[in-house]
Design a protein that fits this description.
The structure is a homotetramer. By secondary structure, the first copy, chain A, is of the alpha/beta class. Chain A is about 35% helix and about 25% strand. Chain A has five helices and nine strands, in the order βαβαββαβαββββα. Chain A has helices at about 20-35, 45-55, 90-95, 105-120, 145-155; strands at about 5-10, 35-40, 60-65, 80, 100-105, 125, 130-135, 135-140, 140-145. In chain A, the strands form two sheets. In chain A, strands 4-3-2-1-5-6-9 form a seven-stranded parallel sheet, with helices on both faces. Chain A has a two-stranded antiparallel ribbon with strand order 7-8. In chain A, β7 (about 130-135) and β8 form a beta hairpin. In chain A, α1 packs parallel to α2 and α1 crosses α5 (about 145-155). Chain A starts with 6 loop residues before the first strand and ends with a helix. Chains C and D meet through β4 and α3 of C and β4 and α3 of D. β7 of chain A pairs antiparallel with β7 (about 130-135) of chain C.
Chain lengths: ~160, ~160, ~160, ~160
């Protein structure tokens, strides 16, 4: 029956601002309240805050780790996946989700946004990257103003 | 609290004999009864039989898929991980487990056995590969005679 | 002695504009003239144009392919690397280079730019993506106005 | 024109016996003499000995590295490929070759043998693993008695 639940990734940096961490925790809470399963990169910062929020509401959390060691997963990851493939695991984080919520983030987050867009997986952004090509804005990232809106958009746009 | 449960991988071919499928289903049942979480490659054959057995006992099943499509997961996979990295996902299947139970299997299974042994993850074998080097038998695979013994050995040998 | 040569990646889309293809071929020529080895994703479009240019000047070309089949490499790839890991090979394309030249490109190229910047590998841009975060421009991509400038900047900024 | 040359992988442990190292160096020499390009995992032991032999005869050597650092390649690797994907790079080592020569080796080598056989890539063995399933010997590894025979068999069996 878990298969009927939506899998939504939350991506963002391991050293977020306190505001980004607050947003991530609230996103995690909302996802759990709405019955979605949280997928993330399994480490600290935005990933940990989101898992903490989801756990507080009894949600399920999946952490797809880059290294060889399950012990480095943040304490709110319930299902640690140990890939051993380094940052190439970013591809697996987004492909395992039906929509992605990006919060702040650095170049690792940008790589995940890119891989998601390349694969046709919707990306919802909260205070995150903006893109343009040849001086033309790229509007592929769906902007949200707050965590509840981000979660609603993610669930509405989620692919099969 | 899932983190306190053991993660055990079940590996084997996608076209098992009926005896191998029976063993896999029984291994899945036993794992679920003992509260372990089942990790597998997410596809058919031994993977599906093990997930079916675990599901029948209310267990949790994780399927780490090679391709880009969650839809190909067998119907008993509750947590599909979509890696997009092809057979390199074999590494993630075994690294995500604390012990591995190999049932029958072809060269893909042998690669998983090898990656597990290379990473110091215990491998328990049921009717599977036997190895030798320079005419000397390699006894790294712990042999089990039946599903219950395989599961008990896996849980006892499981690393942290 | 090849080890003393610089490895420079050229990244860009498989369906470039004719202007982008022209830029890529010229970049390939310049790299070969200056003794650098060209690394790319091995397929068509910008990758093929760059390899064609490098080959015309007697340069060495390496194509790091996503799939399982060497036959799909463009005809100017001399050293095809068959990864079998899909788009996760984008990480290997940039990590195998000491600097990266991005020409045009879509989301796959953006993922490569991101992975390079995350790994501290310089990125030189020709008519490619522009980035901003929280309404602040990110200037990590070094802009070049033409192929010769791009190659000179890549060789000057190349890391060890 | 490199594309018309055969790509042959040499696999084996990083801590070979002196006899295995001697065999590997001789295999590398023979491959270069016959115009083949050597592919390997890029590190020490059998990989280094094979690259040393090939270099001594003016051959081309490709090293597909597991980590993030080109500096760890052995000094005879001319084309270092930096994958960043850990042992999952074993898949790329064999897929990049048209035939594989295994010399001695531990579980990492066994995983490469397995991935090659799974992909239909011929494996030639010199003092390496022997396999059996359900008490039946598996003869998929073509045995060679010496380096020259191994190279001849690899070149004859090489796939396209």
């Amino acid at each position: 029956m878990i298969r009927n639940q939506k899998f939504i990734a939350v991506i963002g940096g391991s050293q977020p601002s306190s505001e980004e961490a607050r947003l991530a925790e609230e996103v995690g809470r909302e996802l759990a309240k709405q019955g979605a399963i949280l997928v993330c990169g399994g480490l600290g910062g935005v990933m940990e805050a989101a898992c903490k929020g989801a756990s507080a509401e009894g949600g399920v959390t999946v952490g797809i780790l880059p290294g060889d060691n399950r012990q480095v997963a943040n304490p709110y990851v319930q299902i640690p996946i140990v890939t051993g493939i380094g940052y190439a695991r970013n591809v697996a984080v987004v492909k395992s989700a039906q929509a992605v919520i990006a919060i702040g983030g650095n170049y690792g987050t940008l790589s995940e946004i890119s891989h998601a867009l390349q694969s046709g997986i919707p990306v919802i952004g909260l205070n995150t990257w903006a893109l343009s090509r040849n001086s033309q804005q790229d509007n592929s990232i769906t902007i949200a103003q707050n965590p509840a809106e981000a979660v609603n958009k993610a669930l509405n746009l989620a692919i099969n």
